[in-house]
Automatic annotation (TrEMBL):
It is an enzyme of class 3 (hydrolase). Its EC number is 3.4.15.6. This is Cyanophycinase. GO terms for molecular function: carboxypeptidase activity; peptidyl-dipeptidase activity. SUPFAM superfamilies: Class I glutamine amidotransferase-like. Belongs to the peptidase S51 family. The keyword Cytoplasm does not apply. It catalyses: [L-4-(L-arginin-2-N-yl)aspartate](n) + H2O = [L-4-(L-arginin-2-N-yl)aspartate](n-1) + L-4-(L-arginin-2-N-yl)aspartate. The keyword Lipoprotein does not apply. Keywords: Carboxypeptidase, Hydrolase, Protease, Serine protease. Exopeptidase that catalyzes the hydrolytic cleavage of multi-L-arginyl-poly-L-aspartic acid (cyanophycin; a water-insoluble reserve polymer) into aspartate-arginine dipeptides.
Amino acid sequence: MRKGFSILLTLLLCLSLWISAVGEVKAHSTSSKGSLVIVGGSLGSSNNEVYQAFIERAGGNKKAKIGIIPVASSSLNSSYDFKEKMVELGIEEKSVEILQISNHDLKGTDEDEAKWKNNVNKKKIVKKIEGLTGIWFVGGDQIKITSTLLKKNGKKTKALEAIWKIYQNGAVIGGTSAGAAIMSDVMISGGDSIGGFKNEFVNEDIYYPDKEYNPVFISKGLGFFQHGIVDQHFDERARLGRLISTAVDFEANKEKYYSYGIDEDTALVVDNKDQKASIVGRGGVAVIDTNSAKKDENKGTIQNVKFSYLSSGDMIHLDTKEIKMKEGKYQTKGEEYYDFQPLPATGILSSYGRLKEYLAYALVDNASADSVKSFVYESSGEGFKLSFKEAEDTNGYWGYTDGQKDDYSIVNVVLDIEPASVTFKEEEHIFENYREPVFRPSSSAVESSTIKGNLVMAGGALGSSNSAVYNKFIELARVKGDTRIGIIPAASSSLKSSELFKKDLIQYGVENEAIEILPISNHDFKGTVENESSWLDNRNNEELAKKIKDFTAIWFVGGDQTNITASLLNDDMTHSKVLNAIWDIYKNGAVLGGTSAGAAIMSDVMIAGGGSFDTLSKGFTETYDGMTQQEGGPGYLEQGLGFFQEGIIDQHFDNKARLGRLIAVTDELGEQDEISYGIDEDTAMVVYNNQNTIEVIGRGGVSLVDLSSMKKAGRKMENIELSWLTEGDQFSLDTHQLKIKESKVETKGYEYYNSPVAPHSGVLTPHGSLGHFLSYQLVDNEAVQEVKSYSFHEGKGFELTFKKGKETNGYWGYKDGGKDHYSYEKVIVDVVPGSFLIKD
């Protein structure tokens, strides 16, 4: 794995550079009265919590005087956007200034900003900085920041001295992406996790155009954060490996300091006076402890790394290294919610495929596991195995965020890394025990063209702040100016989710009197005096059915979809009187909606359980063991309610990695030339029956799975077409044509990226969700025509190849400020079974 003397020499050079880098800045130490707002990148314009944290520490919107440093960017757009946001939040426009600090020309302006490079030593700029209460560094290239504010000999320019002065006296310094990378003494300026694990460090910007990884580029930061090393874009770009490797080799005081990996749209907010750091925003912060880590360069191993993953509201005492959880979270240790055998995280078919989610659901909140594994490797198969283990002090903390989204924090998971190779061999008939489904659906026999109502199907984890979905449901619920909404609680184990949804509707403007939680259930709810299992008789209650005929909307909450169908279908699978009433209002113009289980019931074929890997390899079962079945095992199908007549629906599609099971179910039970639909979390697929069109709204996307041209031999399936639509995109159910949101542009022929891609192999894969992996790594990447992912367990599994075809295209734009917003169409997917040989 190592390159002998040359790598050692490079490492020594980096160490020398680091020692010279920190010597001067360390003199300031932690005596600063100021604060830091360190953002991991892709800060959404709607993420007011982070912006307010910055403004508050700058003196509040009446006293704040903000200077924006644009040098990292290629244009002034991000600086203008930040200024506009400051003004929107109440700061006077004259109190927010873009400082003329740059060492290069910026696009889109008449002025040559390269002329600003000498401003960093001019009194005019220094005087402006000395009157500020806050400095903001925009994102881009961190080297442009340091090469502008530091002299060639490593000394500070006068502008940087002025920034340090106001920081020491109480000002706040903030930045996103590149503006976060510069915060620590050791600055990580490039490279990836594989490069880190390979122990390849450089002190210049070296890029391997023909390799699937790059060495870790270490340089000198500005040192405002004196408590460890900082990395950014942490989860989205899977930078755990590069941060661990950097911390092991370059953090001089491991006993005293952690290292920190900050997710996108998330901030580490540091208050030096109190010696505290808090997490603010929509992602998390990884806290890496390498004090007891052991590295063996000859074997290529790193052992006994401890790390924690914190979320919004959690806090760290920087002087004692104590971690304090947000109030209201519950410990998982000894009270684990899940009890299933997790598969290793090996690729695109791994449930909870991102690092924090995987460790939360599969390890710390799972009674059946005390260790889990993942991999990262190149196309050659050479790479590394990651073993995540629970120790005595490992714990998880769970609560809700943004309504009823799971919110986890994790402390003291132990990680060992060792070299490993993965070899795949195609074997068409390796899964000989695959079982076809016995289940066959009965059709609702209602032509969608006769239905005047609409559907709002959310993929689960619907945030209370997701105004697009709530407002669309409310808009469609207004039939002839009237609104009356019924909530069906049957899927849940309690009434809390129904009560919360009602509260959310009121928040969005619906009158309390217009909303009713309907007494429909087949089981008792927790936390109530009444035994709601007696409500099962209500499915044929004529008064309840008559009441429903006055409703303009019905919403099904999430939980277990089999409880919904059992509460509305008679024992002989005929429609109950209440279900007939729901059908009547739907046909006459009402909107039906639901999240998670409430989306699963919408098609005739209802997917009630199973994981992607097990459904593809084992097939289907006729038995169902409740919620555990939803975390894995062979597929389980039941009769749905059939409100959506144009295909099969699956949900939690991205987070629970359900591509494999939707392909398997569609292969077995899909109609000829019919599309199947996988809806991501916090996202809704809206069906307009009168237009026979669907629209995507919300924060994720909807995957369209088309098997009409598939070729199949045993468990080998080739030429599947996969498209992914995101917010604002539409799809015609008649013509199967896409209508992409106008603000997006085609990527075909104008690809932004141009680099080789390692396989999707687990939690250390950049852009790891299905939609993002294919967007960034394939359709917007000129260098590749195909990318691969491997999923395996106990020596058996699948090779998935995603390819560009003649009709493949991608579409890109911005959303929520400067976040990338992708869609793609007609990516070709091949699923090939085979055997795997893993060598440690």
